[in-house]
Design goal:
- The protein has a domain of about 170 residues: Anaerobic Ribonucleotide-triphosphate Reductase Large Chain (Alpha-Beta Barrel).
- By secondary structure, it is an alpha/beta fold.
- Strands 1, 2, 3, 4, 5, 6, 7, 8, 9, 10 and 13 form an 11-stranded mixed beta sheet that branches. A two-stranded antiparallel ribbon has the order 11-12.
- The longest helix has 30 residues.
- It is globular, with a radius of gyration of 21 Å.
- The protein is about 45% helix and about 20% strand.
Length: about 450
């Protein structure tokens, strides 16, 4: 299906441009682990994960070495715990979180996602228990990630869930105060969450997926930046249409690399291959930045006028290139604009080029949303819920995935610095203008109805 020499040639061309297979994620269905006995359930979960994932890391390393490109992160996504552990209380959910964290350490994967709930239309008993457990579960574990889907285009926005999750975020921040609210970095709140996403913190295995599946996430902002630089160097007056074509062709090559490695890992593990998620996910490394692409295109900084148009072009070209390269493109597949995880974006925020309002506007055309945004620790639950609701509305109305990963940093205010370490990076805490404790809109509860264009059938 693929020309291996072509892929190897592509890898050689981009080996110094920060191309990597950012994540291979093994999805594991846990519905056959269900039990009303907590100890039996935890034992079943551990056995199923170990059975499927014991060789994941070694196989990824071997395949990566074979092709000369590292698989940076090895991860697991599981069925939503709010569903498979529905009979259990919040305190028992915390016990389950510890079991998941322990087994993630046992099989030596980086993160395990799926401590999740799908509450876009209502909150069931298991959902409520999981949300109540989130603060302790995330503060007391290291490798566990969580997500809550509170809105869809078909169902509207569950405002009761938005307020409840805002309270959980505030509590998780306080419980991880010593780490500047780090627990919140492992929680994504979604509208229209994909069921096959390999990227954390939002990954989980959808209900309609196979018993086990390999999804791969490839990232290459440095590759795209270098391709644009070469084109402009050769032709200084090159048009935006031609630049979009270059981005598309580059994304096509990167997708083929990801699919080759993902399929080989799946074959070695005797597990079905799922999708390639071609998301330009940056790191805090110079040269591996989405923000630097904006400067290469001719903007002073991400956040200045023209940034939303540039991001729309970038995101669309990436998707077109990925769709041409593979019939199995999924997840988010586009451009991430995380604040702390991208050195250039963090600097733009610190220098005043990028405000939280402009960031929200840009999420209308990116592939995720308000990602890794540190805000003052004294932000109110109501203001936090309002920010989340606004982002969910963008996803609902535009029939796209949006998400928030907001981190209230205890004891710190706008303008202060915060460092989360590693790939999570560092940033200046962003100001939230016009934040008050008097807004009662989000406390009215209920469900904001789905838009009229949701009635497609």
């Amino acid at each position: 299906m693929f020309n291996s020499q072509e892929i190897i040639s592509t890898i050689e061309m981009v080996k110094n441009e920060h191309l990597d297979v950012r994540a291979v994620t093994l999805g594991i269905n846990l519905f056959d682990c269900i039990s009303h006995d907590l100890n039996v359930f935890k034992k079943n979960v551990r056995n199923k994960i170990v059975k499927n994932a014991s060789n994941l890391v070694s196989v990824c390393d071997a395949v990566g070495e074979k092709y000369g490109i590292a698989v940076v992160n090895k991860r697991i996504s599981i069925s939503p715990i709010a569903l498979v552990a529905a009979p259990f209380s919040a305190s028992q959910m915390v016990e389950i979180a510890h079991t998941l964290n322990d087994v993630a350490r046992e099989v030596n994967i980086d993160f395990l996602g799926g401590f999740s709930a799908l509450v876009e239309k209502g909150i069931a008993v298991g959902d409520s228990a999981l949300i109540d457990a989130l603060p302790e579960a995330l503060a007391q574990t290291q490798r566990l990630c969580a997500s809550v889907n509170v809105a869809t285009t078909r169902s509207g926005i569950n405002m009761d869930a938005v307020l409840q999750i805002s309270r959980a975020i505030k509590k998780a921040s306080e419980l991880s105060k010593a780490d500047d609210g780090l627990a919140c970095a492992k929680l994504c709140v979604f509208a229209n969450i994909p069921q096959d996403m390999p990227f954390m913190a939002g990954a989980y295995l959808g209900v309609g997926e196979a018993d086990a599946v390999i999804n791969v996430g490839v990232s290459g902002p440095g590759v795209v930046k270098k391709a644009i630089e070469r084109a402009i160097e050769n032709s200084p007056n090159i048009s935006l249409g031609k630049i979009a074509e270059i981005i598309k062709n580059t994304a096509c090559k990167v997708t083929r690399v990801g699919e080759l490695i993902g399929r080989e890992v799946a074959e070695e593990l005797n597990i079905r291959f799922g999708v390639v998620d071609l998301s330009l996910a940056p790191t805090p490394t110079v040269g591996d930045s989405i923000g630097e692409i904006f400067q290469t295109l001719g903007l002073t900084s991400i956040g200045v006028p023209g940034s939303t148009a540039a991001l729309a072009m970038l995101n669309d070209a990436v998707k077109k290139g990925g769709a041409f390269a593979s019939s199995h493109v999924g997840g988010l597949s586009g451009a991430f604009i995380p604040v702390s995880e991208d050195l250039n974006i963090a600097e733009a925020a610190a220098n005043g080029y990028l405000s939280i309002e402009k960031l929200e506007a840009m999420t209308c055309v990116c592939s995720v949303g308000l990602d890794m945004v540190p805000v003052p620790g004294d932000i109110s639950e109501e203001t936090l819920a309002g920010i989340i609701a606004d982002e969910m509305a963008i996803g609902m109305i535009n029939n796209k995935t949006t998400a928030t990963r907001i981190i209230p940093v205890p004891g710190k205010k706008a303008g202060d610095k915060v460092s989360f370490g590693g790939l999570l990076g560092e940033a200046t805490i962003m100001d939230v203008p016009h934040a008050t404790n008097r807004d009662v809109f989000v406390t009215r509860g209920g469900r904001i109805p789905a838009p009229i264009h949701s009635l497609k059938n």
